[in-house]
Amino acid sequence: MPESFLSGRGTVISEEIKKETDIESPDFRGTVVFMKSGRKLKELRERLTRQNMDLYVVMNCGMEGEMVCRNADEIPDTAGYYTILIAKQAKCESD
């Protein structure tokens, strides 16, 4: 992952997806990290792309079957327990 990936404005927030209501929370800003997000990938992908966020997913990091997705089109609808989704607010043209 490039060093600049988590740099810039915003705060890294770790969120564990446990309930439907977690996805319906207010708009996210900056960089947000969702841990254990495998069962909610489809909903998260749809909601966060609507908010113009760049999405990255790592599944089974360091284990057999590791998979890295660097854009929303590569992200499957569901994944296993060891899935991390990183959403970063897209840069504006003026930034």
Task: Give me the side-by-side strand order of the main sheet.
Answer: 1-2-5-3-4
Portion of residues within helices: 10-25%
- Strand count: 5
- Under the CATH scheme, which architecture would be assigned? 2-Layer Sandwich
Please tell me how large the radius of gyration is.
13 Å
CATH class: Alpha Beta
CATH fold naming: Methyltransferase, Cobalt-precorrin-4 Transmethylase, Domain 2
The mean pLDDT is 76
* SS element count, helices: 2
> Assembly state here?
single chain
- Mind summarizing the main beta sheet? 5 strands, mixed
Instruction: Spell the H/E element sequence.
Output: EHEHEEE
Query: How many domain units?
Result: 1
From the N-terminal CA to the C-terminal CA, the straight-line distance is 21 Å
What percent strand?
A: 25-35%
Pick out the low-confidence regions. 1-21
3D shape:
globular
Structural class: alpha+beta
The CATH superfamily label reads Tetrapyrrole methylase, C-terminal domain
Features:
95 residues; alpha+beta; Methyltransferase, Cobalt-precorrin-4 Transmethylase, Domain 2; five-stranded mixed β-sheet; 15% helix; 28% strand; disordered N terminus
Task: Give your account of this protein's structure.
This protein is of the alpha+beta class and 95 residues long. The protein has a single domain, classed as Methyltransferase, Cobalt-precorrin-4 Transmethylase, Domain 2. The chain has 2 helices and 5 strands. Strands 1-2-5-3-4 form a 5-stranded mixed beta sheet, covered by helices on one side. Strand 3 and strand 4 form a beta hairpin. The two termini are 21 Å apart. The N terminus is likely disordered.
